[in-house]
Write a structure and sequence with these properties.
With about 180 residues, the protein is an alpha/beta fold. It has four helices and nine strands. Helix 2 packs across helix 3.
Length: about 180
């Protein structure tokens, strides 16, 4: 077993907590209510964007009291770096989304490259309607490719981790949201 690197441990030790666990849960409660009003009679497919969207998806579907199908897509732009690159497709959904309502669930939204590509993909596959939700939308200066339908939290444009977002593959399991110390970005 290899030890956890010092930089991974330092990232957590030196991080700034931006949103505590209770506030994250409250934001998810509010977002889930808004989504449920729109999708309760829509027989949706909830499409988790792996890996970061997993905790948020799990929290959302616990709050939905209507029929839905759960699926996932595994894409990534960061791998184990702190800067986004080319979109890589690791696993495509096996469920047929043609003529279905799809809710794409991701952890974080900044420029919209990943979410924009997924919305285009779902539209091309014949989805009846495609809605999007993210746990965090970053306040970035650049114009995003798409608008997110449901945003739980709006946070500054910093490198974030916790609640599904990671630092070099670690800390997705934290229940609060942290900002990486600026000298580590």
């Amino acid at each position: 077993m290899s030890p956890v690197s010092d930089s991974v441990l330092a990232a957590r030790d030196r991080a700034e907590e931006l949103v505590d666990a209770r506030s994250v849960q409250f934001a998810i409660d509010q977002t889930a209510l808004r989504i449920a009003v729109e999708l309760r009679d829509a027989n949706p497919i909830v499409m988790c964007v792996m890996k970061g969207g997993l905790p948020y998806t799990a929290e959302l579907i616990k709050r939905f009291h209507f029929p839905l199908e759960l699926s996932y897509v595994h894409v990534g732009r960061y791998d184990d770096t702190t800067e986004g690159g080319t979109l890589n497709w690791y696993a495509r959904p096996i469920v047929d989304i043609a003529k279905r309502n799809v809710l794409i669930v991701d952890d974080v939204f900044d420029k919209g490259e990943t979410l924009g590509a997924l919305v285009a993909w779902a539209t091309d596959k014949g989805a009846n309607r495609v809605l999007t939700t993210v746990l965090v939308s970053k306040e970035v200066a650049e114009v995003a490719r798409i608008e997110v339908d449901y945003v739980a939290l709006r946070l500054p444009d910093r490198y974030l981790f916790g609640c599904g977002m990671d630092y070099r593959g670690y800390w997705r399991n934290l229940t609060s949201i942290y900002a990486l110390h600026e000298d580590m970005e």
